[in-house]
Amino acid sequence: MNTRIFFSKLVLFSLLLHLTSACGDEDDPLPNPPSADISGQVKLFDEGTIEMSPSGMTVSAEGLRIEDLTDGDGRFLLQDVQLGRVVVAYEKSGFGTFKKFIDDFNEDLVLTEVPSLGKISQTDVITNSVIIEGMEVRIASVTTGTNTPIRYLRYFFSSRSDVSSESYEAFLDRPVESDPGVNPAVLTITGQELNELGFNSGSTVYARVYGDSYYSNDYEDPNEGRRVFPNLFEDTAQSVQFEVP
């Protein structure tokens, strides 16, 4: 009887020891995922070409709670960023958010390209009108806004009437300069240029015009499947339509 009790206790002790060991293994902290650092620099401008202090911009690894403020030279350092796909976001009050997408982040990375980022445009487009003369289309836009030496306008085109900065088929690569003392601002675009944008002669095109900044902070967003323009003025006039000469 004593032998049976002894072996029963031994078996019970072994089971308890195994369970305690297993629980201990589960409680052990998981190893930190592999990580590395991202560093870079940025330049800041007003809505034109006047350079501003580059300090105080928040640069972050989006969704990872890792961020840094740029110093007086515009430099930043993101430490211990998890390897893999990373989105670096640049944010500051008054500036449109710029993003840089890194698909295969696998070691310490110095971003050698220094982005020039501008403030959000204060140019409001009030009305638009269209005149066609020969092979040219002229889009006239009445604007208001800050009394800067130059205002900047961004043009979006589509075969649909709901054209906007988020729904378009083509846009002008650079914002168009406009003298605020000459109102309305007139864009002259030829039939051939519209053909190059993807619109056939005789087709109906809708255009919408927004105030933009010289450095428009635009970037290609693979999630949205389009180019994003963060510095556009928040409101604008309705679109206008015309036939391609």
Care to give the gist of this entry?
The chain is mainly β.
Please describe what this structure looks like.
This protein folds into two domains: 35-117, Immunoglobulin-like; 124-243, Immunoglobulin-like, CATH 2.60.40.10. The longest helix has 26 residues, at 2-27. It is built from two helices and 20 strands. By secondary structure, it is mainly β. It has helices spanning 2-27, 191-196; strands at residues 35-41, 43-45, 51-52, 58-61, 66-69, 75-82, 84-91, 98-105, 109-110, 116-117, 124-133, 136-144, 151-158, 170-171, 176-178, 185-190, 204-212, 219-221, 226-228, 240-243. A hairpin with a 2-residue loop joins β11 and β12. Strands 13, 14, 15, 17 and 20 form a five-stranded antiparallel sheet that branches. The protein has a four-stranded antiparallel sheet with strand order 5-4-7-8, with no helix packed on it. It starts with a helix and ends with a strand.
